[in-house]
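Reminder: ligand-aware prediction takes two inputs, not one.
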Amino acid sequence: MVHWPDTRLCDLLDIEHPIIQAPMAGASTPEMVAVTSNAGGLGSLACAMLTPNRVLDVVAKTRVMSNRALNLNFFCHASPVIDKKRADAAIDRLRPWFETLNAGPIPEMTEIHFPFNAQICDAVLEASPKVVSFHFGLPDSALVTRLKDAGIIILSSATSSAEAKWLVERGTDAVIAQGYEAGGHNGWFLPRNGAEATGTMALVPRVVDAVDCPVIAAGGIADGRGIAAAFALGASGVQIGTAFLATPESAVSDIHKQSLIAATGDDTQYCHGFSGRAARTIVNDFSRAMDGVPDFPDFPLLNAVTGPLRAASAKAGRPDAVSLWAGQGAGLVGQSTTREVFENLVRQAQAILA
Ligand SMILES: Cc1cc2nc3c(=O)[nH]c(=O)nc-3n(C[C@H](O)[C@H](O)[C@H](O)COP(=O)(O)O)c2cc1C
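Here is what comes back for the chain with flavin mononucleotide:
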């Protein structure tokens, strides 16, 4: 029997180990989620880029492999406004990349995935997961109420103590304190007044002090030492993404997996150039070229345009223009299966916490 120093998250989510496999759009798969949930953690399906019907499909696929607790994750960004001048400037910047990588015609800049809405909510209620988590805030309060009335537990990411309080006041049951080190998109949603994102080490205790609910530490945690540190900071659990990215169950490209295994963790940066928002990636030619560009179209419009470019780069086995999402814990990532990653995390953390 494994003992954790704080069981509030396990009790809330009805799981054995307070470890959430992070939802990772384009990376997490039903296989990864089922293995994690069956091993006693919480598997998360990233649904932000899926239609309501696809959400139901991936949930059904996951449920064939696991009937344990399941998290469905969505984005709550403001709907983008297409500004022709900014769109043209972005496309001009991308044109040489399309030519070099032979990526075909440049697609139109349109909204291809949508923030959480009533249609998606209908699908979620039909799928009836234990947990729904959000990135970039929360949806309309009526939708939060519908989920909560169905007994679904709500998680959301905060990147400051102010965001954590905002989320809890609006019904969030446990807050994911996501630090600067995290791979993928930083989830900020309240104005920052020019301040940079806060690191996990400083953020977690501040969020723990600010809210009266379980806090989940995320960002830069890739082994048992990070988990033990999160508990020392007052967290009740962790959400881990990068450590699962190079597994056979991950859907990212082979070149992405190779880049992760080779990464030191000192070689990541925030890049706005793939989607229009800050997202941590392993440094490559594209992220370097986009560094310092002052203005991008509203998130997530760029995704529609950079999608074929990233795919062409990955297909050619060239990391140059792939969104190599990774957190600063990338240097700790090896070649293991999801089950091995999960079991190692539990074993290492337990050895320290005992
Ligand atoms: C490839 C990738 C994709 C991600 N996509 C999502 C997503 O769709 N939704 C979300 O809430 N968080 C997403 N994240 C952020 C994670 O939820 C989490 O905050 C992060 O992975 C934690 O940091 P770590 O990568 O250092 O473990 C993503 C992270 C990565 C690495």
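The chain has two domains: 1-79+114-251+332-354, 81-112+253-324. The chain is about 40% helix and 15% strand. We will return to this case in the review session.
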